[in-house]
Amino acid sequence: MTALHVRGGQKLQGKIDPSANKNAVLPILCATLLSNAPITLRNVPEITDVQRIHDFFQELGSTVKWDKAAQVLEIDHSTISMSARATLPQAMRASIMMIPGLLWRLGEARLEHEVKGCTLGAREIDPHVAVFKAFGADASTEGKNIVFRNRGKVPGTRMWLEYASVTTTENFIISALCATGTSEIVNAACEPHVQEMCTFLELMGAKIRGKGTSTVKVEGATELGGADYTFVEDFHEVATFLALAAVTGGDISVRNSQPEMFMLIDRTFEKFGAHVEHANGFSRLNAPDELVVQQNFTSHITTKVEAAPWPYIPADLLPIFIALGVKAKGQTMFWNKVYEGGLTWHTELSLFGAHTLLCDPHRLITFGGNHLVPGTVTSPYIIRVAIALLMVAASIDGESTILDADPIRRAHPNFVPNIDSLGVNVKWAD
What we know:
- The chain is of the alpha+beta class.
- It has 2 domains: 3-19 and 233-429, Alpha-beta prism (UDP-n-acetylglucosamine1-carboxyvinyl-transferase, Chain), CATH 3.65.10; 22-230, UDP-n-acetylglucosamine1-carboxyvinyl-transferase, Chain (Alpha-beta prism).
- 28% of the residues lie in helices and 26% in strands.
- Strand 11 (207-209) and strand 12 form a beta hairpin.
- Helix 1 runs parallel beside helix 6 (192-203) and helix 9 runs parallel beside helix 10.
């Protein structure tokens, strides 16, 4: 068990350079398997899943150099032998995005049945299997493994997703680059990290039309070259530090090169009386003296924050706004339209003295503005929930403990040093 001890009650102030987005870094690393040319990636965060992929590439026979201090990762897959074999790492869901590259390169990929990730409810792999089959792969079960074998190049295909899944969209795009002709995906996910993967692939020479929209077309059979690419800031982390300013009554500026992605996020902060400004490459939130839930013009309707696939508020950001709902005077309904297991952690908030009501697996009401007290809480294996609990603890005068807080390290290697620099006394304890 890894715990965080937090002594809160300070108004956080300062400037932050956020990390890259884990959800962009991992698919881009997987997509590098489509090239034999040298690739340099910059601003690579030192997180567990990157280390797992690094180790897997070395096991395959790739030449990989990672300067962790400089955050630079150099990759050369031309040294992989055609006879190479490796079972994908089970401990991360991103493993499934290496299957297209392995099928293209080796003709076979093996995946353990239980692919793990955050504890957010059922996350099936059937949509991915449908993508691989559409692009000419056979799938079978051998012992504890699902084995995919490539039948050879196939023409481009058209697929209409039942749900705008991020990883399914990414797998379709990567697979389509290995086909012949044009492929089209309808109801594609369009999150910023999906767009970033497309930008990286275009830098390598891919021809992709429609990124950032629900319909994406990909030209296949394009030989991909090398690239020198710098990851942009993680919009989740930018929003999280802004929320830390709001919840502690502080003033924080965060480097942000994509403020155009924040229009709806900014409006959501406004629902709690907090205002975000974007200028000179930074986003700033100077908190009001008190957070108050803003009343709707339609006065009998409860203020809502609804999370769904982009361009809605991302489900990954819902916990940080729940933390604001706990602090702000008034009632707020939070609606997670994505994960049925995404709100069960709300009972931990009561240990701080917060008042919440779970309406059903998808909807939660906070009755904010209560006097909160330090407490010891336990985080589920969900990155943003661990951060939300830390946020509430940071806003309370006194010492709190977040048990099982290790998920934070999965996405944000510098998160604790960063908030420590802003004025929170926080330390890890095993």
